[in-house]
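Slide 14.
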Amino acid sequence: MTAIKEELIQAETQPLQEKAYQTLSLNLAYDFQIIGLPSRTPLSIPQLALRLRNYDVVFIGEFHGNHASHLLEARLLHALHQQRSNIALSMEMFDRDQQPLLDQYLDSEVGETFLINEAPTWPNYRAAYRPLIEYAKQNFIPVIAANAPADTVRCIARNGAGYLKKLSPDGLMLISATPFRTDMRYKNKYLTLIETLRNLSPQRKEQSYLAQLTRDNTMAESIYQAWLNAPDQQIVHINGSFHSAQHLGTVSALKALDPTLNIAVISPIRIAETARNNSIQQVVNQLDSEQLIADEALYFILGQPASFRKSSYKKQQRKAMFNRSSQATCY
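Slide 15: predicted structure.
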């Protein structure tokens, strides 16, 4: 019997010990603390896995550059697989057009450098997503390249819904059949976020939102198609937290496809350095009420270092990034 299975059995037979988790104790950048909702009960990975064992789809939200998120994902995927072997991994980080190459890698037909260069993978693949892909590869777990092609998403953001008319039939197959299905709560949340990030005209904001919806609806459709092909398997989907927090975004798009699906969401919460050893109760008391009622679990992690201190350098870097994006051609 593996250590993780022993932990799962102990977690199932022993009561939760809240006193063991009185403080967050986030001492390292990789540390995390999970709480179950709505009970607000501290949980270990095995305990969380037990709570999730009967869900059809489990969404794990992450902060893309935070390795505590990536460590939790790897450990939770392992625990879920140990208790329910029929499992699939779905990822925002791979687009539908990359599925053949990803399958080649999983079948050991190409090496990792080929995958990284030719897909191409996200820049932080080796540190962030290699553990998930390697675990899937070693255990013959299918991996779903769930997202819409990045070029299509970028061109929708630039040209709006009309860009779809330029896509070939094959190109349309790589995105959702209903790419712009929306949810007003999610739209309000997205536009509020955009206001804090960029100064865009109303038209550009709307186009940016359509691009976001294309991602969400395509990922939802990818997950749903995989579930229809094997309804007895559990699908674990990894995405940026915004896509799934409070059961919005990709989650609400998936529910629109099938309201009967049993879906769980785990979302991250950043904790300031000054609060790293606060009690869990102190931290919970500072959260928005919606954060405490919508999802099935939260996990607390330390925030990342500030990317910028000088606003002038921040503007310079963002301008360069947007200039690179604008130079890409939309056919």
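Speaker note: The longest helix spans residues 202-229.
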